[in-house]
Amino acid sequence: MLAALVFLLLMVFGLLMRAAQGGLVALAPDLFYRILTVHGAGMVGTAGLSGAAIMWFFVNRHVPLSHAVYVAFLALFLAGVVSILGAVFAGGFAGAWTFLYPLPAVSGGAWDPLAAVVFLLGYVAIGVGFLLLHLDIGRALISAWGSIPRALGWPLVFGRGGEAPPPTVIAAMAVTIFNTIGIVVGAAVLISSIVNLVFPGFAVDALLAKNMIYFFGHVFINASIYMAVIAVYEIVPEYTGMPWKATRLFAATWSVVLLFVMAVYPHHLLQDVPLPGWTMVVGQVLSYYSGIPVIAVTAWSLLVYLRRAQSLAWDLPLALLVLGVAGWSAGVVPAVIDAIVAVNRVMHNTLWVPGHFHTYLLLGEVAMAFGFLLRLAAGERFRSFTGFDRTALVLYLAGGIGLVLTFLISGAASIPRRFAVHLPDWQPLALIGAVAASLTVAGALLVVLRALSSPRAREAA
Amino acid sequence: MQPVVLIITVLAMAAIAAVFAWAIWAPPGAVDPERAERWRIRTIVALTLAGVVLAAMTLVPWPHAPQAGPTPGIVVHARGYQWYWELDRDTVPAGTPVTFLASTADVTHGFGVADPQGRLLFQVQVIPGYVSRVDWTFDRPGTYRVICLEYCGIAHHEMMGQLTVQPGV
Ligand code: HEM
Ligand SMILES: [Cu+2]
Ligand SMILES: [Cu+2]
Predict the structure, then answer these.
(1) B78: domain CATH number?
(2) Among B6, B20, B55, whose Cβ lies nearest the Cβ of A285?
(3) Which residues of chain B have pLDDT under 50?
């Protein structure tokens, strides 16, 4: 619930940025970039938070987890949010969520190094919270299934029979492994950046730091989607009456995903020509192959279950969960295309990039998280699909499609991302985007109101 | 290239949306789970093979300039500062190979060049401590825009310069 309110607030920030780029509202560039930093860091963090909440909730149904660790996770998250907000709004930090070394320390006089230190410490706090959570989940899964390979379903994959773990267990085990590795690498580059801020004599290789940042950033944001999809595995069967089965293909796919998520990050560095060419080949080729599991395994299974169900009682939570998988699948397309080195050369760091990731975050991860939240808040099925619910869904979806299409078209028109001020030629697209964004915000507001008015709203908080 | 990329992308996204819409709204019919599995495996195999073809088509010839080795034509050194570009020459002839050697004095920047219509031709990341090379032959004279394509601080959007391409001899 908390996560949903934060999503809503940050969406308003997003709307504000698009309106500023359209020349509709006047935002001083430094304020624009501070809002961009908070929107980026906040959305990525909240996506992680909502994904983790989904994973924790369902894993806890299979194996008991520590409530104390969960509370510590939330407390550390909150501490991180407070220091990030303080660093940005009080300290003026506007280094973007990617804190690309050495920008936090070399701001051209825009912010104090102290603000950068506080910002990065906020990340460290959040990272420690996630580590605790993953370690607890890893511990519980290993003790219940005997070993990591068993929890990943390897006996099934390699034809040695045995009982397959539930989908949630396989997914949680895989995410726990790669997100832990991602966060440890993230922590290393965060600490180096902090030491560099405090002792400027301590310099880091900028290209190495960039590799580590993007490894961490890529793994973390992907983990949020892979955790959120657990809600689909667990909730959709309540509607179809058919359990989501962990087949051999399912288990094998998750092990492949576990490797691909970590190996594919060079697709963020396709224009970093000092890197060896083979890293770019890996980035391009694995990006394409990472899309196949989403489309041919997750989306395919979902659609087959939906078609096989005798009578489906559609309601808002189910619709949002299905939308989440659809948005994730559709978002694969512009992502894979941008990961082609030759295309990336003219699309990288244009608005194409926000175009693809808003598709699988706004219409993907967040839709799944909203679906989960409503399901939790309702306690039982909604029973009906009211006019209010339909309005919420249509606004959210129509606005979301409008927003991502205007981003993609802007990218194809070579309009750069992260520009506080847009040239007059570029402004009409930003304005259309802002209109679409306001529809999405309205839709999200209705979803949140619906959750607040549900019988178990307080527990779902 | 960009318009083609946009059209292919939007069509593929629409196709995925259409499959979802079909699965949701088509009148319920018997679905044979085994048949669905067979088709799933075929789809995976087809997509896997298509990936090999796509990689071969787009990676050969290699899209980036060699980073070391001889420079056949004119060399332009571009240096990025917060927040402006410094080019050691701002005029080049059309039809002659140009090698850009981009570097930075402070943080990471992105060296990008757009044609007179504003369409991006290429870009390369410029990382502290490294020199990034791009080879390009301009075929039309005109005023080209040099921009920064990596967020480099609060005046990142002001980091624009010009490059004039004169008719070749
Ligand atoms: C109404 C909904 C939303 C609107 C209007 C919106 C708008 C924007 C805008 C205008 C930008 C800056 C684009 C630029 O580079 O010029 C942006 C960046 C971004 N957005 Fe959103 N957004 C929305 C929802 C979301 C959601 C739900 C997420 C993730 C869960 C998200 C994650 C991000 C991230 C990670 C960035 C990149 C920040 C950066 O470049 O540093 N956004 N968004
Ligand atoms: Cu990525
Ligand atoms: Cu810049």
Answers:
(1) 2.60.40.420
(2) B55
(3) none
Lowest-pLDDT range, A3-17, A168-182, A427-441?
A3-17
Closest residue to atom 7 of ligand 1, CA basis: A14
**Residues B80 and B50 placed together within one structural domain of the fold:** no
Are residues B101 and B55 both part of a single domain?
no
DSSP secondary structure string, B83-139? TEEEES-SEEETTSEEEEEEEESSS-EEEEEE-TTS-EEEEEEE-TT--EEEEEE--
CA angle A121, A123, A125 (to 5 degrees): 70
Whether B46 is in a domain gets the answer yes
H or E segment to which residue B44 belongs: helix B33-59
pTM of this structure? 0.96
* Helix/strand/coil for A114: helix
A414 closest CB neighbour out of B28, B44, B119: B119
Q: What domain count does chain B have?
A: 2
Radius of gyration of chain A (CA): 21
What integer pLDDT is reported at residue A457 of this predicted model? 59
CA–centroid distance, A211 to ligand 3, in Å, is 19
Q: Are residues B80 and B131 in the same domain?
A: yes
Position B88 in a domain: yes
Residues B123, A346: C-beta atoms closer than 8 Å: yes
Chain A residues closer than 8 Å to B2 by CB:
346-347, 411-414
Q: Does any ligand 1 atom lie closer than 6 A to the CB of residue A88?
A: no
Going from the Cα of B150 to the center of ligand 3, the distance in angstroms, rounded, reads 5
| B65 falls within a domain | no
Which-ligand-closest: CA of A287? 2
Q: Is A45 in the pocket of ligand 1 (CB under 6 A)?
A: no
**Residue B122 lies in domain:** 74-166
- Contacts of the segment A68-74: beta carbons below 8 A, 24+ positions apart: A69/A132, A69/A133, A69/A136, A70/A133, A70/A136, A72/A129, A72/A132, A73/A129, A73/A130, A73/A132, A73/A133, A74/A129
Distance from residue A113's CA to the centre of ligand 2 (Å): 28
Instruction: Provide the angle, in degrees to the nearest 10, between the axes of the packed helices A29-62 and A366-378.
Output: 50
| pLDDT tens, position by position, A383-434 | 678 889 999 999 999 999 999 999 999 999 999 999 999 999 999 999 999 9
Question: What ipTM is given for this predicted complex?
Answer: 0.96
In a domain, B67, yes or no: no
Q: Label each residue of A308-363 as H, E or C.
A: HCCCCCCCHHHHHHHHHHHHHHHHHHHHHHHCCHHHHHHHCCECHHHHHHHHHHHH
Q: Whose CA is nearest to atom 21 of ligand 1?
A: A14
